[in-house]
Amino acid sequence: MARASSNKSELNVLVVDDDENIRLVLQKTITKQGYHVSTARNAEEALNMLQRSFFHVVITDIMMGEMNGLELMQQIKEINSLMQIYIMTAHSNLSHVIQAMKGGAHDYFEKPLQIEDINATVNEAARRVARWSELYNRHSRPPVAASGKG
Fold this sequence. Notes:
Blueprint: E1 12-16, H1 20-32, E2 36-40, H2 43-52, E3 57-61, H3 69-79, E4 84-89, H4 94-102, E5 107-110, H5 115-140
Parallel strand pairs: 1-2, 1-3, 3-4, 4-5
């Protein structure tokens, strides 16, 4: 079992949305689950934050100012291809869903958001991070030298 899953605070989440209410609700909801949450008002602010800090998960709106969430997702994937990205929108259509999933989104949420879905998704993301961390730690240790041979 992944030991890191018992320490929820190890998960860092970035919420990106131009709607302050959505940012605040998600920040409060995810923080209550025991995770670290930062917020950004737009894609440009999110990219600046991603240059300065490490995040395991990004939850982003699609429809935002200069750069939309799908474009943000593409840029994030260039920075860190393993980043778990979740897309949310009030303007859902099949084209956006297909584009998001082909672009590497882990999931797609329609607004109004269902808090239970967000909690389940973030908890699963934390389990995934714990598994990756455990696997990395197990396989990044130097091999133990065989004794008695030589």
